[in-house]
Amino acid sequence: RAFHPEDTVVEVRGAKVGGGNFLYIAGPCSIESEAQICEVAKLVKKSGAGMLRGGAFKPRTSPYAFQGLHEKGLEFLLEARNATGLPVVTEIMDLSQLPLFDDVDVIQVGARNMQNFEMLRALGKIRKPILLKRGLSSTIDELLMSAEYILSGGNEQVILCERGIRTFSQETRNTLDLSAVPVLKKATHLPVIVDPSHATGKSELVLPMALAAAAAGADGLMIEVHNDPNHALCDGRQSLKPEDFDNLVKAVEHIRPYAFHAKLA
Ligand code: PEP
Ligand code: MN
User: Fold this and answer.
1) How much distance in Å is there from the Cα of 138 to the middle of ligand 2?
2) From the CA of 195, which ligand is nearest?
3) φ, ψ for residue 111 (rounded to 5)?
4) Of the candidates 20, 38, 72, 186, which lies 20 to 30 Å from 81 by C-alpha distance?
């Protein structure tokens, strides 16, 4: 902020985040079929999502778990964009995949790659927004320095995402570090969004944490939504049904006028 006091607004295909623009990014953890991603895309758009998420390359703990549909998944994701007009964000797992991401609107760097410095440098050389998620055990300074790798290459379109960190707490998948929101907003001009889905791992905790994130001054939310969470190939336990996402947007919109703005404090 010292060098760049004004909020950065990241804009892609009409979707804006930062500088007072609140963005809902919604969609399944993984792209499972063309029908699935298109169905979810239509429903979340109707509820107010401005961007569609969906993983094609999935960083799974077990090598035997569903790894994503890879190129086919990206194809289906772009079909869903064509069908709805929603810009899309999807995760890159390795720099060798970069050519496949030419048509993707926003490239996600997942928590596990937050300190893949070679990848960050390469993403600093392209001119496409990057959604950078906080590492599982990374400090706020480390997150900011990772963003700096991208910015220093000349790519100024970076969105930061708080998605929970590792603590001794067992009740939730991760511990949502909500204080990261005002801390980051004060330190940086970059948009800051919150992912309460991966932060909690439980669908019933997504709404309260989404409300809290909005109140804390987040610029947007990333929410996992599945048309059939019980049969999802990945992260069904934390995925909202489309109707629950619809209720979430309505509830968050009630909170937003009262949000704390760290910059003004
Ligand atoms: C995701 O958003 O699909 C994901 C894998 O999240 P994270 O990198 O935060 O674990
Ligand atoms: Mn997921």
Assistant:
1) 19
2) 1
3) -55, -40
4) 20
pLDDT in tens, 188-238: 999 999 999 999 999 999 999 999 999 999 999 999 999 999 999 999 999
Spell out a b/e string for 215-251, using b for 16 or more CB atoms within 10 Å of the CB, else e.
bbbbbbbbbbbbbebeebbbbbebbbbbebbbebbee
- Render pLDDT for 39-95 as a digit per residue (tens, 0 to 9): 999 999 999 999 999 999 999 999 999 999 999 999 999 999 999 999 999 999 999
How far does the centroid of ligand 1 lie from the alpha carbon of residue 115, in Å?
14
28 touches ligand 1 (CB under 6 Å): no
Q: For residue 134, which atom of ligand 1 is closest to its CA? A: 9
- Ligand 1 close to Cβ of residue 59 (< 6 A): yes
- Centre of ligand 1 to C-alpha 2, Å, is 30
CB 51 within 8 A of CB 87: yes
135, 170 Cβ separation under 8 angstroms: no
Dihedral angle over CA of 55, 225, 222, 99, nearest 10: 20
- Indicate whether residue 196 lines ligand 1 (CB < 6 A): no
Q: How does 45-78 read in b/e, with b if 16+ C-beta sit within 10 Å?
A: bebbbbbbbbbbbbeeeeeeeebbbeeebbebbb
**198 Cβ below 6 A of ligand 1:** yes
State which residues have CB under 5 angstroms from ligand 2, the bound ion.
Answer: 29, 235
State the pLDDT at residue 265. Answer: 45
